[in-house]
Predict the 3D structure of the following.
Amino acid sequence: MDDHRLEIDRLNAELAETRARLASFEAGSVVRQKQFEDALESWQQTYREIFNAAMTAICVHEIPSGTILDANQAMLDLFGVSREEVLDPAFWNQAVVGPPHDAAAAVALINKAAAEGPQTVQWPVRRKNGEEFWIEVTLKQAVIGGMSCVISLSSDVTDRRRAEQEWIENQRKLSAAMSIAKLGYWEYDVASDLFTFDDHFYAIFRTTAEKVGGYTMSPARYAELFMYPDDAHGLDREMHVALATKDPNYCGHAEHRIVYADGEVGHIAVRYFVIKDDQGRTVKTYGANQDITDRKRAEEALRASEQNYRELFNATMSAIFVHEIPSGRILDVNQTMLDMFGATYEEAVGSTVEDISVGTPPYSQREAVSLINKAATEGPQQFEWLSRKKNGQNFWAQVTLKRVVVGGVPRVLGLVDDITDRKEARQRLLHERETLRALLEAQERERRLIAYEIHDGLAQHLAAAAMYCSTFEQLRDSAPDDSMKSHEAGALMLQKALAEARRLIGGLRPAVLDESGLVAAVENLVSDVGSREGIDIEFLRDVRFERLDHATENSLYRIAQESLTNAARYSGAQKMRVQLLQQPDRLILEIQDWGCGFDPANVAQECFGLKGIRERASVLGGMATIDSSPGKGTRIHVELPVADKNTAFKPDA
């Protein structure tokens, strides 16, 4: 019994001790809980301070929705929003700029980071005020408070992207400039004895790095592949100079021939610099090669052109002067000039026009310089000039002055031809023309007399014959004897008329030309041809004369007659135009049709119509121009000089 009691007391004592311990543990647990909670609150406060103090914008995203669960102050500042706005699910629609960078794409990227691992991208976004900018975002999965989520770290990279784009653009421009300029960059490392080339370098040689084994090669390999064999020694010389120079700022330059990958030979220019170490030794060289093949070819072509120019310059049959503006000083002459004037090159160059002219007005230095400057400012000048050879002999020259550019400098070019013989021949020709004109006038007088004779002779005979024939008809039945007498008389009149006609034929002049003059005659001709051929012919005239001399009137009439006849016969034109114009010193006759045209150079020699037109104009000191081509119609333009006496012509009494 006592033992049982003792056991109970012992157990109660242990129970009391246990309760006391439990009470003591509970009291300690409360204290520890309080300490843990205080520590947790302190840690959270520290985390929040660090979270908000971070310079990088940070967001915590829910998986899989992508909703922002938390964001730091840097994130709020970056987008210009409040905490409530960034936690609002509608924030995505305000922040994204649209496909392909829209909200759906952003959420997909967040889930990709949760499933596959960290993702870093650059992304265009928009601030609350609408400003667009670029951020670089790193997304990474994390566990916060036991919940799996994705953390994003964002930085504004707008300026960096802009700088990168500018750098890329500058690189593109530099690359384009190097391609256009045919430049290639290279470096040479002394220690490794290797060149390193860029793609532009290989482009010069019409190949690629892949085709020749890479971007590096030894000097020997470079010389073997690309240098013209006879120029290979130049590479060794330049490398020796680069290694031996003491100048840290040394800049070398060389040119040599190259062999392109396709075997063609070209030229390059090389410019290079050196890099020294602390002991002054060359450790590296770098530079650029430029393809100058086109320049070399242009220089060779220029030299050949200059040689050809000089040969042509000296071979020209006209004497050539190159004059300075405005002084008129002679700067250059050709061999023909030296031969023409009997001077040496040294005597001619630097001299003045005064030295090779008679020196008196209007052939003096003053007039010459005036003409030279007039050619420089107003256009080409052509005139005759009385010149003087070195031996003092005078001769006539025809001079043409024209402004040219020689070596980039404006000059006046003078071309001189000795026309002394031509002037003498011209005087003889003028005399012959005057004689011929007199003969033509005499001929026209004869023709006019023939016309009068036709009126008074042939016409009278024919009228009488007609009368006798009429009488014959009337008396044939009633008085046969008398009718036969009338028949015999009429036959006699016809015989006389035939004889008269044969005498006068071949030189008859249109009556209207004598009676009314050239204008009326051409007008009558136009009317006759137009009516006969069914062609619309327009006649335009602007003249002040009443009559011209017989030779001029007849020649112009015959030219118009020949031109219209040919056009009506061969051109197939339905429209023609004749113009007769008077200018102060010349008459102009122009006949134009809009027919099939022809090639004047291929007219058969036996066709004398066009030749006759030219000769009629030439005899009277004028000129006929025949302008035609197949399908373009024909224009005949005739100009004749007219002296005052021609416009004062009066028919003979």
Q: What stands out?
A: Residues 420-475 form the longest helix (56 residues). The mean pLDDT is 82.
